[in-house]
Amino acid sequence: MSNLITIKDIARALNISVSTVSRALRDTYDVSRETKNRVKAMAITLRYKPNFNAMGLANGKTHNIGIIIPFITNYYFSTVITGIQEAAYNNGYNIILYVTNDSSDRELAITRDLSIASLDGLLVSTCCNNGDHFTELIEKGMPVVFFDRVIQDIEASKVMQDDYNGAFEATDHLAKKGYTKIAHIAGPNGQPFTENRLQGYLDALKRNCLPIKKEWIIHSGFSQECGEQDTLKLLRDKKNRPNAIFAVNDRKAVGATLALKTRRIRIGQDFGIIGFTNDPISSLLSPTISTIAEPAFDIGYTSCELLLKHINKKQTPVQEIILPGILIERQSTQRA
Fold first, then answer.
1. How many domains does the chain have?
2. What's the distance, CA 150 to chain centroid?
3. Structural domain for 259, as ranges
4. Model's pTM, two decimal places?
5. Residue 255 lies in a domain
6. How far apart are CA 278 and CA 285, in angstroms?
7. Residue 327 forms beta bridges with which residues?
8. Which of 54, 109, 255, 305 has the greatest number of CB atoms lying within 10 Å of its CB?
9. Residue 55: pLDDT above 60?
10. What tens digit of pLDDT does each residue of 266-277 get?
């Protein structure tokens, strides 16, 4: 037999009507503050938990939020999810994860098979350059908010870290430390945040009157292995090789560190490295890796709160929110 507490139990305990309890829990205007406080206190005493399925039938909401994300094993995205979960929990929502493993085909399949009726809204960090599949969802009435990896051409709210200024600051930091030949191991072509970080790197080189060489800019994936392979390519030409690297993320910076160690190149003293994210591994390696810390938790929390605004008020205007990063200097850019 079920021991689930319902609003009928609260009403019986307080000797008031079920409808009054319902309105009090929904904080409607026609119930006094005293009654609302009594109802909420009794709900806590009885350990009442709202039945979101029943609420969904009543108000047309499922209290489910979908999240399309490239990875969950990645430190950055796991922290973003923590922020999303915190905001969702505080507002009585559940989250449902859809992981693409950075595959555009899988992302398309997920959106094609998505049950709109089972979700109130969708948070997206995309791996696609084209957003027609999301435009279709938006046109069907699905509230969508992009975070981190966004598609600029879509008319939807977006929450991002400041990729351009973070990249500019990282490259400028290398220049101020005396590194004069700075390469960039970048992410895949076409991703807006890849392009923004590339532009920040290029503008910082111009500001410091340092050389820009196409062969010192390598586009590839985001993994440690990609960072290692990119760095080995840069080291092949001994007469024209860089003496510092700005990596698009910390995983690639770790790969660069390993590649330099295999060549017995002194990191910090002879060759500078800086990443982007502040993944915990960057502070555990020897030498430790300088980085731009991203506000991952805040990006998740802010994007979820913004999505809830779109869910609860359909006329909420589209917003673009950019959160700043913080430079963290470690041993990989400290010259003797």
1. 3
2. 10
3. 163-294+327-333
4. 0.77
5. yes
6. 12
7. 292
8. 255
9. no
10. 999 999 999 999
